Design the sequence.
């Protein structure tokens, strides 16, 4: 037993004394030869014969060395080190090949890593700074079996009180709200506040960095995020106990949350405050989550909540109609992860195609190199190197290549991620999309490159190490059966590359086309040159009456401000993510769809000039005007779709609709008759939240309750941003009101198109990359085949063949491959296009322009890749070509 | 572990037998250099074992690592610098154990290939 320990130690020691041990072995072998020679001479041989015999009996000196060092040291480690050194030398010797392969691989691996980074940030990452994230879940509400939405305060209280599967259930507002913080003597500043139930931190297991987090039922307390504390208070510990005026209400700072905790979602709040009570059981404004008790599975919890949901439906049949409770693993995007996952999967698929192209290309290049090195390999095989040894050597080189690419790719991925994030339009709230480089991302890039290396390196290595030793040593330039197989393999690579690249370019083309289509598509309104500024009058102590009056004053002042062409106030703008629920709509003699009691319109509450400001045409009737006031008969403007649906073939203006609204505590809604005074053009894209509704209804602000969120909307005369103008007007009108966020209308409109923009830019960029890589691939193959045939070309020319004919011959063969790959690619692309049809904004899936353009592009690239090496080959002097051997 | 190429048409060496041969040779002959060990093995086997003599050095280093033999540089009879290997105490014990083990195995193998006749068995 002991001896193995000694042996292991000795082996490790031997690693560090390699030079000395090697020299000693050489000395011993020299002595060996000398002794043997002397013996043989004594036996009567001539000195030459004696020495020859001695050498023969000793056998291969290389093999002896190898066996010796295997027995002596750590052979795997040593050969690995040697392989790496050898591989690095090989890579340095072919800088161009190395550069192009590393570049293509780095781009492909980098792109996949980028997508993976985003996916990790959005889907997989457990929130930092919480305890045992595995037991945390999101609790959402589905309506009619779909969705994962927010819940109301009374429902939250009931659910938290009844559920037994949880250690605790918390709730918080869906987004951090922009809020006014009264600075110490200074002006108001916006901060983002998230209201949470007071068990939020304890259920999540978030520790305070300083002070304490909510740990009892409390009001008027505030916990700061570490980032905000650092940014705003410069880590001043005396902030604890200070009072912050948030929207005019005092909150005592009780602590700072742990540095690692940024909230559970992608939208990072600055401050957490306790939830306020809201008695409405209809208003869904709370995102719920909880911690499962030890030993309770997610499905057990789901089953219990399902029952509670049913009971709540029975108890409040109107408020909770068809609302079920659902449970899902805690996610930064509660309820939104499925579409995001789908979108990322699409991007990942595109990126994987590029990686496959790059791998095929590298395979091709390696195969060519291995062919060029056949002699070297054959010699090594002949002197007794094992085939597995050669394969390992070649694979090491490939892995090395990929390792370099992976490192480059990680660096590249950082840049690409930032570019991708910058593709996102300006968001009106802070987001915590930490795209940090963590070990998972590095591991992903490394693993991906390793798999890719194996995939693309194994075939060439196996091919190259075939034991057709004799043929190789003779360096037979005619294409023997072995080489033909190799050629066939390379041809397969070219066909695959061309097919995949055509596919990619077509898909990229379709996305770009769809994007163009969407942006030239008449949306029914126009936000370019319009500024959208959010203010929150409700929070500033205005009630319905005073708020409406202040809002009207405000708009009139904004209209008078320099550079303003038109201005209004609105609650929502079409194309965004927000929507408001004001109630149902009922029309005498018209049945709502799906057995519903009422129509559910997309509501908006506006001041006059809304339609002029966003250039949404009024088709009939009039706009709201100064006479539509709280005391005058209630009026409404409908969208054209609603007007057609309610009174087909008739004029809508002059008819009445009834707005049905639930008041807290009552079982039946109260109705309010509204006179239709106008009909407006429907926007092409409604709110993305309730985009399915095609009933649009507009109410005058003066006759409607003031909403929490209000937007000042102004169109500038010259396209200059109005951010500053609106901000100063708002703050002059009432120093306590500030603009919480301001956004260019174009950015707002871009938000809805962001997924398409990203898809188009990702697939477009990668399409170009794929195109280049495929071009290099075709060129490589043709150039390789031509070098193999230099002698044949020389003979043809010596025998009087014309250059053009020789070029034609070569081009014909090359283009055959390109055509084959192209046809396959087009067929696959056609299939993919039909699958993507619903994403294309009505652009034709089988767009003949894109398909023929892609074909033409590849014909040109293929032709260039064939003609250049061919014409170079035919320019060689035939004598040189023949001497080529 | 590889014992090396043996010119096998004559005799295939079992795994580990080369090490045992080397140990026995050193026990019988006293300190020897690599060539001496190789030549001795060939002679004793009446040239039925023809070593690829290089493999001897891998066996020597293996044994040396396990401290069964030790190496010393010295000069040969004809004044040549050479590395002499000799058994250590551990090597001697190991050799005894392995030799008796080997005898038992070969005894059993003999019986299997040439079962005793009925008279002998009685």
Sequence:
């Amino acid at each position: 037993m002991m001896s193995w320990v000694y042996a292991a130690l000795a082996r490790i020691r031997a690693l560090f004394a390699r030079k000395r041990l090697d020299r000693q072995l050489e000395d011993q072998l020299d002595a060996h030869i000398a002794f043997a020679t002397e013996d043989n001479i004594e036996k009567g041989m001539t000195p030459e014969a004696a020495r020859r015999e001695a050498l023969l009996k000793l056998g291969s000196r290389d093999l002896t060395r190898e066996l010796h060092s295997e027995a002596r040291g750590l052979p795997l480690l040593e050969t690995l080190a040697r392989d790496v050194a050898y591989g690095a030398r090989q890579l340095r010797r072919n800088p161009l090949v190395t550069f192009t392969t590393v570049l293509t691989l780095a781009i492909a691996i980098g792109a996949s890593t980028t997508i993976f980074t985003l996916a990790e940030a959005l889907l997989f990452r457990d929130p930092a700074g919480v305890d045992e994230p595995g037991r945390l879940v999101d609790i959402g509400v589905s309506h009619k079996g779909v969705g994962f939405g927010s819940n109301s305060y009374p429902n939250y209280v009931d659910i938290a009180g009844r559920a037994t599967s949880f250690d605790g259930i918390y709730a918080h507002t869906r987004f951090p709200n922009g809020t006014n913080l009264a600075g110490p003597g200074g002006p108001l500043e916006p901060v983002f506040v998230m209201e949470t139930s007071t068990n939020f931190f304890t259920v999540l297991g978030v520790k305070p960095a300083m002070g304490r987090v909510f740990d009892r039922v409390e009001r008027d307390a505030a916990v700061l995020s570490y980032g905000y504390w650092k940014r705003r208070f410069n880590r001043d510990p005396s902030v604890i106990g200070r009072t912050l005026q948030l929207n005019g209400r005092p909150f005592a700072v009780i602590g700072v949350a742990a540095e690692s905790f940024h909230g559970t979602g992608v939208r990072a709040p600055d401050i957490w405050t306790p939830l306020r009570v809201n008695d409405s059981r209809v208003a869904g404004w709370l995102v719920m989550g909880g911690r499962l008790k030890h030993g309770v599975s997610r499905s057990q919890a789901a089953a219990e909540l399902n029952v509670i949901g049913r009971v709540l439906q029975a108890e409040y049949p109107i408020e909770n109609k068809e609302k079920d409770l659902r449970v899902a693993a805690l996610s930064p995007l509660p309820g939104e992860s499925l579409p995001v996952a789908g979108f990322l999967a699409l991007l990942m698929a595109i990126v994987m195609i590029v990686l496959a192209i790059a791998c095929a290309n590298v395979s091709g290049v390696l195969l060519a190199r291995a062919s060029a090195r056949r002699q070297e390999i054959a010699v090594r095989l002949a002197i007794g190197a094992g085939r597995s040894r050669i394969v390992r050597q070649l694979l090491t080189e490939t892995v090395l290549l990929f390792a370099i690419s992976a490192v480059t790719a990680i660096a590249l991925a950082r840049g690409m991620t930032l570019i991708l994030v910058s593709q996102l339009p300006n968001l009106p709230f802070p987001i915590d999309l930490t795209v940090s480089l963590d070990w998972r991302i590095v591991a992903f890039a490394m693993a991906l490159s390793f798999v890719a290396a194996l995939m693309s390196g194994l075939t060439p290595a196996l091919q190259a190490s075939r034991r057709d030793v004799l043929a190789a040593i003779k360096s037979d330039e005619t294409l023997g059966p072995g080489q033909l197989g190799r050629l066939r393999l390379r041809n397969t690579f070219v066909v695959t590359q061309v097919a995949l690249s055509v596919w990619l370019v077509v898909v990229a083309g379709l996305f770009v086309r769809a994007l163009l289509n969407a942006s030239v598509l008449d949306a029914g309104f126009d936000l370019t040159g319009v500024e959208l500024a959010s203010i929150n009058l409700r929070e500033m102590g205005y009630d319905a009456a005073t708020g409406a009056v202040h809002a009207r004053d405000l708009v009139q002042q904004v209209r008078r401000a320099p550079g303003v062409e038109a201005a209004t106030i609105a609650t929502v703008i079409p194309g965004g993510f927000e929507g408001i629920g004001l109630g149902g709509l009922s029309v005498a003699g018209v049945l709502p769809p799906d057995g519903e009691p009422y129509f559910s319109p997309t509501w908006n509450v506006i001041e006059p000039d809304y339609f002029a400001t966003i250039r949404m045409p009024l088709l009939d009737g009039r706009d709201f005007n100064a006479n539509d006031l709280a005391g005058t008969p209630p009026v409404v403007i409908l969208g054209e779709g609603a007007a057609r649906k309610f009174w087909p073939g008739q004029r809508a203006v002059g008819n009445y609709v009834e707005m049905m609204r639930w008041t807290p505590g009552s079982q039946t809604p109260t109705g309010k008759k509204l006179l239709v005074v106008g009909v407006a053009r429907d926007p092409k894209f409604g709110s993305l939240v309730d985009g399915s509704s095609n009933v649009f209804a507009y109410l005058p602000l003066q006759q409607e309750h003031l909403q929490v969120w209000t937007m000042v909307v102004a169109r500038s005369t010259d396209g200059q941003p109005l951010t500053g103008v609106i901000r100063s007007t708002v703050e002059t009108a009432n120093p306590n009101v500030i603009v919480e966020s301001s956004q260019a209308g174009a950015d707002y409109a871009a938000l809805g198109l962001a997924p398409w923009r990203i898809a188009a830019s990702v697939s477009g960029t990668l399409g170009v990359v794929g195109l280049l890589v495929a071009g290099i691939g075709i060129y490589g193959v043709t150039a390789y085949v031509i070098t193999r045939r230099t002698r044949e070309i020389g003979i043809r020319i010596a025998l009087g063949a014309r250059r053009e004919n020789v070029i034609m011959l070569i081009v014909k063969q090359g283009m055959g491959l390109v055509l084959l790959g192209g046809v396959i690619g087009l067929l696959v692309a056609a299939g993919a296009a039909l699958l993507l049809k619903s994403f294309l904004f009505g652009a034709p899936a089988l767009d003949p322009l894109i398909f023929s353009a892609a074909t033409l592009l590849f014909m040109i690239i293929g032709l260039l890749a064939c003609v250049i090496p061919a014409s170079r080959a035919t320019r060689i002097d035939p004598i040189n070509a023949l001497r080529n051997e | 572990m590889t014992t090396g190429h043996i010119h096998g048409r004559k005799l295939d060496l079992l795994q580990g037998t080369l090490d045992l041969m080397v140990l026995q040779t050193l026990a019988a002959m006293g300190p020897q250099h690599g060539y001496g060990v190789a030549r001795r093995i060939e002679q004793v086997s009446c040239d039925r074992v023809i070593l690829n003599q290089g493999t001897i050095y891998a066996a020597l280093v293996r044994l040396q690592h396990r401290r069964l033999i030790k190496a010393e540089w010295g000069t040969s009879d004809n004044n040549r610098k050479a590395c002499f290997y000799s058994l250590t105490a551990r090597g001697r014990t190991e050799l005894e154990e392995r030799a008796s083990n080997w005898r038992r195995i070969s005894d059993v193998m003999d019986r299997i290939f040439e079962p005793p006749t009925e008279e002998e068995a009685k």
About this structure: The longest strand of chain B covers residues 69-75. The first helix of chain B runs from residue 17 to 29. Chain B touches chain A at residues 1-2, 4-5, 33-36, 38-39, 50-55, 57-59, 61-62, 64-68, 76, 78, 80-83, 90, 94 (CB under 8 Å).
